[in-house]
Amino acid sequence: MKFLKLSLQNFRSYHNEKEVILHNEGEKGNITINVGETGHGKTSINEALMWCLYGEDTPFLPIEENWASVYLNEYSKEKANEKNEDEIKMAVKSNVKIDEKEYKIIRSAKYDVENEEEKTSRLEIKDKESAELIDNPLGFINERFFREPELMQYFIIDAEEIRRLFEKNPEELVENHMDRTAGVGKLDKTIRVLDQTIKYFKSEKGDVEDAPEQLQSIIRQIETKQDAIDELKKENKEKREKINSLEEKIEGLANKGVDEAEKYVERKKKETSLKENIERINEEFQKESMDDGYLPTKFHYVFLKEIFSEIIKENKNKIPPRAKVEGWINTLEESFKDEYGGVIWDNNEKALVEKGFNLENENIEEINNIDFNDQEASKYVENQVFKKYKNLSDKTQDLFTDFKDKIEDNITELLEIRSSLERIEVETGHEELKEKFNEIEELEQHIEENKDRIEEINEGLEGDDGLKQKRKDLEKESNQCEYLNRKIEKTQELKDLCKETKKTYLDNIIESINEKSTEFLRETVDNPKRWNKIRVNHRYEFKVYREDDREISENSFNTGNGQIALLAFFFGVREYLTNQLGRDIPYVMDNPLMRLDPEHKRKLVGQLRGGARQVIMHLIPESEYNEGIFNEVVQNLNHQNRLAIKTKEGGLVEISEAKSLDTRGMIDWR
Questions:
Q1: What is the pLDDT averaged over residues 373-388?
Q2: Residue in 421, 468, 459, 462 with CA at minimum distance from that of residue 441
Q3: CA-to-CA dists, residue 515 to 155, 510, 519, 522, angstroms
């Protein structure tokens, strides 16, 4: 590949259209030299080539700038304003020869003078021989050059800028080169993102990290309590079987004519039937009251009030005994179970007030002094103790009345049955029967105690704060923990894969770059034993070693040998790209000989002049372009241009021009 010609129209300091010859097909040699003072248009050639290839994506154009503010020729703006022209055309045309076929790459853009707005550039590529346009110009650039504009910077370079960046931050420079060359920067970024992702998952996991262990503990507790319940149920079943056996024996005694046993069996069956009726009526009452929106907890206050009213009404002239009200109190207890707190009794065994009712202490003391046969008792109970329930709806009262009517007969009969059973058990003189009665009573008591224990255990298992709910909550947290663990594991695997991929890439790249850089270094420096090898490592450190493997101090990089070492690394990267991607792209170098002493300049030029690859160098007269350099390259010199500026209209605007000269003699800059 060779750049043959470059045409610049209103680009940088090149006003109108100026042409720069970059290769003369009629001459041998691979080197073209453009000579000009600083500011005379040398760097503009590099910028024009990159803009021609990549337009607004050129890395030479600062991200925060647009092409018009950086590249558009200022003199063209003045002339357009003078002539009242609407727009200015900026264009760069590059004639390039690829595989013995010539193409013209044209990048053009227009600038709206009145609105001071630039338009997006347009790319066209023509086949020089057929004059036909290439269908896919962007694909042509990507295939013949590079898809990534940054990689072209290894072939169109500013050597002085490389030195400046290295002095500023050598590790960052090396890392950037590695990123451009093989995309390891993208891998580094991916690794950092994955690392942050792992940290995020771990922070999320912190809230549920102990959930699996806590869950196992809860499961063990639940199993222990369930085992206890099963054991209690088993025990109750055994006791119930024993009770059934005892009752069968009592019934056997009844069949033998034992009067007390016969009565006991009969009443026991009646008691069971009545209890079932009471339970059914009570369930219906509670369901109906709940369905209608009346909480059962309200009814026992009304119930208690009715009890007191009945007692006061029936016992106007005497203190009601505790036995008189106990049936009603038991009904309360059985009906409302956990919601019922019991009744406060005074020393004379008067029923005073339901325990769950919230009374101040002084009110309780006052109630203790009330005699139920006093007319004030009814008034007090009606107006004070139950004042807050006075406004219960008619429906509530009706529900209660209906419930009371349904259950009253059952309760009365049940109390009589129980009383009869107690009397039979007390009065019987039959020792065998009495022994069985006592044993049944003990077994029933144990069964009830076990039921209470089961209920107590169930309370710990069920409900909003029970172990089973905790288990559900912990199962969710445990599942979340396992989910996060899987996420962390997979993300870590991906991170490790990226790190391994990066290492593989770097191993390959570093080995090649170190080899090529070292080869260039040894052939260019004046003391190959002292400046013997270049080593770049995985930490992006750039180091130079002597032949005996001693490291050379960075302070020595300011010397000619040090500058050659920096360029050697750069050439190593470029050779890697050339070998890997197969692009035989020309070298276009701005200020490659700056800061070098004559001997190193001579050796560097000697490195560049050999081979078939085209080399274009922009040199400053005297410091870079002099008789010694000319004599070194003359045998390989293909073409040379003198770049200079001219002034127009008062000398305020600089206009670069390129004058083509042959290779037979050195350019007379004076």
A1: 43
A2: 421
A3: 19, 8, 6, 11
Mean pLDDT computed over 335-347: 48
Alpha helix (H) residue ranges in 206-258: 211-255
Tokens of 624: 């870079």
Cα–Cα distance measured from residue 11 to residue 1, given in angstroms and rounded to the nearest whole number: 24
Q: Which residue ranges make up each domain of the chain?
A: 2-155+585-661, 295-392
Q: Identify the H or E element spanning 406.
A: helix 394-427
- CA end-to-end span of the chain, whole Å? 34
What is the homologous superfamily of the domain 2-155+585-661 according to CATH? P-loop containing nucleotide triphosphate hydrolases (3.40.50.300)
Lowest-confidence region among 28-32, 58-62, 621-625: 58-62
Distance CA 190, CA 522 (A): 37
Which pLDDT belongs to residue 19? 93
130 contacts 103 by C-beta, under 8 angstroms: no
How is residue 283 written in tokens? Answer: 């369930």
Return the exposure string of 201-215: e unless at least 16 CB atoms fall within 10 Å of the residue's CB, then b: beebbeebeebbebb
Residue 544, H or E segment: strand 542-545
Say which residues have a Cβ less than 8 Å from residue 71's Cβ, sequence separation at least 6: 11, 12, 47, 51, 61, 90
pLDDT at 350 over 90: no
Backbone conformation region of residue 619, classed left if phi is above 0, alpha if psi is from -120 to 50, else beta: beta
Structure tokens that stand for 87 in this block: 């727009």
CA dist., res. 191 & res. 503, Å (int): 12
Question: Which of helix, strand or coil describes residue 533?
Answer: strand
Count Cα neighbours of 438 within 13 Å in the Cβ-side half-sphere: 10
302 pLDDT more than 60: no
H or E stretch including 651? none
Q: Which of 14-28, 427-441, 461-475 has the highest mean pLDDT?
A: 14-28
CA 452 from chain center: how many Å? 51
**The tokens of 147 are what?**
């898809």
